[in-house]
Amino acid sequence: MKVEFNIDPNLSEEKAEFWLKKMTSKIKRITSELTSKQDFLWGYQDGDAYAIKFSKILVIQVEDEKTMICTEGDAYIFKGRLYQVEKLLPSNFVTTSRSSIVNCHFIDHLEIISSGNIDAILENGLRIQVARRKIKVLKERLGL
Prior knowledge:
Largest sheet: 5 strands, antiparallel
Number of strands: 10
Structural class: alpha+beta
Helix content: 10-25%
Number of helices: 3
Radius of gyration: 17 Å
């Protein structure tokens, strides 16, 4: 695909235009990300609400029937289901199982377990199991 950028600091509003043979899921994801104005999620901790930037989120996972947003130093509760938060996230987040979504920017490496399963090891050492049916999507997203 040919990509072209025209940068003009005098523009009053930014605009993106695509010339496509057909709409793909990748283009839909990019379009959704470009049109989204939200770059954070609301997380709750001790009764207080915090705006957590996507760039700070390592993993979002379900623990004890609660959707948890995990950053480098803290964990927050998201008031909603995992499938609801998945719709709000940019393309650098990938679903690794029914109970977890990982920010690809924080994956240090993938570890193949003796049983043939794969774990994603994050930069902070956190180990996230990747469901067999999600391995293909994860590899595509990582460019493997």
